[in-house]
Write a structure and sequence with these properties.
single chain; alpha/beta; Nucleotidyltransferase, domain 5; five-stranded mixed sheet; 7 helices
Length: 239
């Protein structure tokens, strides 16, 4: 997949051509949450300018179906957010781990509409909340037939899916390769059942690094974990 260098926003909060996707000066903030946003990434400036002018791109190296490349492993995939019509961002944590915890999730639907979800529990773990945040986000997706990019700062979640560890645990009756029980089988099963019918790519980002939506999810999760009269996480069985 060719990396994009220019992001053309034809319809958004502030139309124009941007050199970066994320961050306060990037294209992402111009299109996320903007109904009917229209935007696209390009390798060359002249193609971005042609798009803004309503013309066909001057060059289109990825236009032919036969030129579609297999995605590389997520660690160095260079995933382009513009290739995914639906975006899910999730985060979760527990105070004390285990302890009171919560998740926060942001879903950007294909039409640009935005939804936020969060909930807290009286006793749970970081990993359970990371999993549940992703599950809630995917369950909220309106159109399961389009590619979805799920972004999380949990290596446990992202590697569990992208490295196919969780599918291996399921195939072995929720046992690890060494025969020991896999943790959180209830949530992994729920997540894999969703993924069996959806096209989702998981992307890891470093937490607390300024990623706008990841930071928002963290705020939602932190607030939920500090709520009053939190219900129990009935799936948590203790260490």
């Amino acid at each position: 997949m060719a990396l994009k260098k220019y992001y053309a926003v034809l319809r958004g909060k502030k139309p124009g051509i941007y050199r970066v996707w994320a961050g306060g000066e990037g294209a992402q903030v111009q299109v996320m949450g903007f109904p009917g946003a229209r935007y696209k990434g390009f390798e060359k400036l002249e193609d971005a300018e042609a798009f803004m002018a309503g013309k066909n791109p001057v060059t289109s190296p990825d236009a032919s179906a036969g030129n579609k490349k297999k995605l590389r492993p997520y660690e160095d995939a260079g995933l382009d957010p513009l290739d995914y019509p639906i975006h899910v961002f999730s985060d979760g944590g527990a105070i004390g781990n285990p302890g009171p915890g919560g998740y926060g999730t942001v879903v950007i639907q294909e039409d640009g509409s935005r939804q936020e979800f969060s909930a807290g529990f009286s006793l749970t773990t970081n990993n359970r909340m990371e999993l549940l945040g992703a599950i809630v986000g995917l369950e909220a997706v309106k159109n399961e037939g389009v590619p979805i990019l799920l972004t999380s700062d949990s290596r446990y979640l992202v590697q569990g899916i992208e490295k196919k560890w969780a599918r291996g645990w399921r195939a072995r009756g929720w046992k690890k390769s060494d025969g020991t029980p896999a943790l959180n089988p209830d949530l992994w099963k729920r997540l894999l059942d969703l993924l069996d019918h959806m096209e989702v790519r998981f992307q890891w980002v470093k937490g607390h690094s300024g990623h706008i939506e990841n930071e928002r999810c963290d705020v939602l999760a932190q607030s939920a974990s500090r709520g009053s009269n939190l219900p129990p996480d009935t799936g948590y069985k203790g260490k």
